[in-house]
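Lab notebook: predicted structure, single chain.

Context: the supervisor wants predicted structures on file for every construct in the current expression panel, including those that have not yet been purified. This is the next one on the list. No modifications to the sequence; it matches the entry in the shared construct table.
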Amino acid sequence: MKRTVLHFYTRLCHRHVLVGAVSFFAFGTDAARAQTDTSKILKQVIISSTAAPQLQTLTPTQIVTQADFIRTSSLNVADAIRNLAGVNVRDYGGIGGLKTVSVRSLGSNHTAVLYDGLQINDAQTGQIDLSKFNLNNTQQIVLYNAQPDDICMPARSFAAASVLDITTVKPNLTVQKPYKIVAGAKGGSFGLINPYLQWQQRLNNRWSFIMNGYSQHANGRYKFKEERDGSDTLAIRRNSDVKIYQADGGLYWTKSDSSKFNLQVNYYNANRALPGANILYAAYDRQRIYNRDVFIQSGYQHIAKNSLKLLINSKLSRSYLRYFNPNVLNKEGKIDELYVQREAYQSVALSYKPLPKWEVSYSGDVSFSNVKMKGNSFEADPARLSLFNVLASTLVLGKLKLQGNLLHTYITETVNSGTAAASRSIFTPTIIAIVQPFQSANFHVRAFYKNIFRPPTLSEQYYFAIKPRTLKPEYVQQYNLGSAYNKNFDGVLKYISLSADAYYNRVTDKIIFLPGRSTETPTFINLGKVDIRGLDLNVKTNFEPANNWNAQVVGSYTYQHAVNVTSRADSYYGNQIQYTPKHSAALNGCVQYRSFGANYNYTLSSHRYDGFENNNQDVSYMPAYSIHDCSFTYDFAIQGKPVLTAVEVNNIFNKNYSVIQSYPMPGRSLRLTFQITI
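Prediction complete. Output recorded below exactly as produced.
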């Protein structure tokens, strides 16, 4: 029966991957046949300008653009977002180590990662490894607390406490220049070799495509020092090598701004060593992970003259993961597991404006995913069907803008053997407001309340379960009150943007991992309650002190008091939760003179704990650290072809530190970039 359901939804989504093509032909091609096009093609004129970042959004929003990637010495998405307020990137060290993001101390499972508006789903673990996403095809990255402002979007985008949206590069071509080729390479410390290639092509007035190729090789062998033994001995981090190959492409159709269609394919192949925990220089150094991931997604958008907006999205994905660990004290003497995850996804969204200042929308999503596991006696084959339906509305009343939505989530699961979890049907509301309190449009005050949950992942619910687990969803109640100020100037100071947001999050029924008597019998229970009080501050300024000179300063600060309030009888009641610094900050400055640029980046984290107890003498104590990076860029031309060169020095002062206990991070490193655009 389960295979029949999976087959049905796979066929359904497979058909709808092409539904956008059918839809845009229905809206566009037939209409074109009904009339004779007598228009003339005028010469295209490119207009560019620099504007202050817009911070007067309904919910706290932070943006990292393509220009920021070199300024912050970033190699992947995890590097690019580490400066954002409220963000805690959990980095397991090494080039091949897992990198996940926790926003406002809620954990990585509460952050939805979108790729051009569609969620990257992992029903097995719920955690997205951000090191998989390179920056060569990334246009910008946007972090939304609560959710994006646009209410005409897939329903699943409403179903998370925060949203990280990765937007890829789109073809930007003209009649005079119908193609663009970008070729480049990065190389540097620890054996890094990273060539990449991008080809953009304009086919005609409406069709264009883009293709990208990327590879990364590195041995990952860097020196580090063990802090706890009091010696000055240096060791070399082993088993941190990577071999990554990635290819993606997109086909785009545009009919003015009213109708758009895209079809995208992404393939990722990796052979990565997983650097194990280092304890007094003794590290498990033979773990490996093999990935072969592919997805295809399509999107169609149509905006009618009566303000009706239609959005259709489809996606098929398959993820292959093999995990091998020969250092396990079980009867086989190893772990060799294979996980294959498939998902079929379909989304339809509609919005309409009954009045100029009132918009209503409906979104409906269906997702069917299953995971097959092979490799030990606890083989499982769970499948999950998820239905998301949301009604949303935005209303403008003078200087006040209100937005609200009600999300309904229905989840049902099946298993080949044993007992499946009970079906869930849950309603969760969100209310958002922003007001301009004074005559000036530069200052706004905003607030939101969001009640959301995450279901147990398939791993938490089923894997290694000797008996059925009665896990409940993990709920989060979010409260936010903040303000934003944004102003442009005509003098030396070009603009300034400021924002401040205070928030309170209440987590209940937190899902806790409990080790079992052996590595093969862990368990999960609902045992946690967490109170989180925090403050996020952001500032961004731009200066032009003289002709051909430009300077920019960006800063962020985060305070988080995230404490365990499960039971007053616990010795750790009121203690800061694991891996959450109370204070963190980032500062980035850059100076540009003609073709030369100099950049400096600074990140700071206060001390943390990797256990429940908050004892500065305990082994769980992790000291504070600060990291300094710098980079220099120079632009020139070879026979009229733009060339970008860059030199990056990361961790200038060779700071020895760890983000995750016993996973030492690299010391000082050098990276060189050469890129030519044809």
